[in-house]
Amino acid sequence: MSFRVAFIIFCMAVPGLTQAQDKLPPAVIAVLDSQFVIVNGQASQGIRTQIEAIRDVYSEEIKALEDELRSDEDELKRQQAILAPDIFAERRREWEDRLAYVERLVEERNRQIDRSFNDAMNQVREAVLSVIVEMTEQRGFNIILEKGELVFAARTLDITDDIIIALDEALPNVDVPMPK
């Protein structure tokens, strides 16, 4: 579920944000750049740093395997002239099997990294929603508009910085474990 859809559902479920009366309540509007909040929060920055460290570990592992494959391929090419064709073909198949294994490993590592990143960022998104709920209750907003979809809004309506500050207090860090 996207952040916007979750927020709209939240707004519909919170008492006081909608009224089934003849008269509409006065609008108490705020403006939020939710993507900026999610990208620039302290926890998000930490997540990116941890993901890069995991990526570096995996890159070293893959590089070592690729170096070994290159070396084995060079050796196989040197031996081609002296090996019987059936033995060479068997060794070539073994090398190709190892190559396929490394290719699958790269794909799996990338999926693991993506999964870890998405899991961590979902924690950030949930925390952003909680911070928005709390601020909505504290300040009495009944409309929060996405900044990127507006033509104009007074800067005094923008709560983006306030949300980031509250988010950094509520969720300063998210641990991204090394995928198994």
Protein described:
This protein is mainly alpha-helical. It has one domain (3-14, 24-170). The protein has five helices and two strands. It has helices at 3-13, 34-40, 42-79, 85-139, 160-170, and strands at residues 29-32, 143-146. It has a two-stranded parallel ribbon. The mean pLDDT is 90.
Stretches where pLDDT is under 50 for at least 5 consecutive residues are none
Task: Give me the strand/helix succession.
Answer: HEHHHEH
The strand count comes to 2
Overall pLDDT: 90
Which band does the percent of strand residues land in? under 5%
* Silhouette: rod-shaped
What does the radius of gyration come to? 26 Å
- Number of H/I helices: 5
Topology of helices and strands:
Blueprint: H1 3-13, E1 29-32, H2 34-40, H3 42-79, H4 85-139, E2 143-146, H5 160-170
Parallel strand pairs: 1-2
